[in-house]
Please model this.
Amino acid sequence: MQKGLLLVVSGASGTGKGTVCKRLLMEISTLFYSISATTRQPRTGETDGVEYFFITVEQFQQWIAEEKFLEYAEVYGNLYGTPIHKVEERLNRGEDVLLEIDIQGALNVMKKRPDGVYIFLLPPSLEELSNRIKGRGSESPETFARRFNSAKNEIAIGKKYQYVVLNDTVEAAVEQIKSIIAAERCKVNRNENLFENLLTP
Ligand code: 5GP
Model:
């Protein structure tokens, strides 16, 4: 059986990866979303086990010690990590898994899982990026400048990924990611069984 695809989608803050990933999950019903664990507090409307597993710093440290994470990183003062168990289980069953994680986390997964599919989302322009960061509200000029500059630095890291998708409209970005998925499924190294089935008497 063909193993599932490990899809890793990330991008600088303000590139709209959350919206793109939500739409992707709506359109591809077989795609499994890996729910991360985090030490940050739930926001209004968030439920434990749906958006995240909300755990304490002590629990998080315990999970690190027990090697329960595929990767983890500190993002804006909170810890975030991808629980490995469910990801492996789904991939082994031939199901595709989506990780929506930050850039440091994605770079760590790249080292461990070179067979993953790494997609970097870019904002259409710096002006649009600035509007999106401002649109998140209540940013002081200092916080805005810090986020905007760090977003620009993060964009440069995107060159380490395999695929880049411009998030001009959500629809177009989702279509491009679907095309990437289709192409990845056709890769020779993911389909060796097809050759064997045909050539083995
Ligand atoms: P938020 O707190 O706004 O939901 O997420 C903050 C950042 O953490 C986002 O960039 C999100 O992609 C990232 N993130 C969410 N889950 C994980 C994870 O499991 N690992 C890593 N490395 N980053 C994550």
User: Anything to note?
Assistant: The CA atoms of residues 20 and 170 lie 6 Å apart. Residues 36, 40, 71, 73, 75, 80-82, 100-102, 104-105 surround guanosine-5'-monophosphate (CB under 6 Å).
